[in-house]
Amino acid sequence: MYPNPLPPTRHYYRPRSALTSPPGPSRVPPIRQPIVPFENQAHTSPNFHIPAALLARIVSYVAEEGLVELKKWVVAGPEAFAAVISPETLSCIGLDKNEDFVEWAKPSSSYYNIFSMCLQHGNPYALYAQSIHYSFTDLNLSRL
Predict the structure, then answer these.
(1) What distance in Å separates the CA atoms of residue 129 and residue 119, rounded to the nearest whole number?
(2) Which residue has the higher pLDDT, 29 or 98?
(3) What is the rounded (10 degree) CA torsion for 139, 104, 69, 49?
(4) Which of 120, 135, 41 is nearest to 87 (CA)?
(5) In the prediction, which pLDDT does 133 show?
(6) What confidence score (pLDDT) does residue 88 get?
(7) Which one of 4, 31, 78, 79 has the largest count of C-beta atoms within 10 Å of its C-beta?
(8) What does the DSSP assignment read for the chain?
(9) Rounded to an integer, what distance in angstroms lies between the CA atom of residue 132 and that of residue 34?
(10) CA-to-CA distance for 112 and 103, rounded, in angstroms?
(11) What average pLDDT does the chain have?
């Protein structure tokens, strides 16, 4: 009979050099000490302090990416939480990063507290969502 016309499977014979390293002692270089000692731990200093204005500026840049990015800042501590609710941060939170940010204008929303604080500080996204909410509720417009 003729040989099988199908190509061989992946379990065909391979030369030994392709499967293993060449025989002989392995040449692993010895472990040397690092030039600069490095510890994988953060060095905390009790005297380290970031001024509140600078921290609020840093958090406001993070807030431009959306409200979700501020979750870790809220739980980081009292100074970080104060920076999150600072007027500089509340005025620039990117509320539009979430697809249902217009729903936050409803008092029944779980985000209404942060939304109302953003609205008090003139956040443009909050003002836009509030105007959309008023146009659909007060003017009795139907959704398209």
Answers:
(1) 9
(2) 98
(3) 100
(4) 120
(5) 81
(6) 93
(7) 79
(8) -PPP-SPP-TT----HHHHSPPSS---PPPP---SS---SS----TT----HHHHHHHHHHHHTT-SGGGHHHHHS-HHHHHHHTSHHHHTT--GGGSTTGGGGGSTTSTTHHHHHHHHHTT-HHHHHHHHHHHHHHTS-PPP-
(9) 61
(10) 9
(11) 78
Q: What is the pTM of this model?
A: 0.59
**Cα–Cα dist 43/31, whole Å:** 26
Please tell me the distance from the alpha carbon of residue 108 to that of residue 92, in angstroms, as a whole number: 23
**Is residue 97 over pLDDT 90?**
no
Sign of CA dihedral 6, 9, 12, 18: positive
Distance CA 106, CA 126 (A): 12
CA angle 66, 67, 70 (to 5 degrees): 105
For residues 86 and 95, which has the higher predicted lDDT (pLDDT)? 86
pLDDT exceeds 60 at position 2: no
pLDDT at residue 86, as a whole number:
93
CB 81 within 8 A of CB 102: no
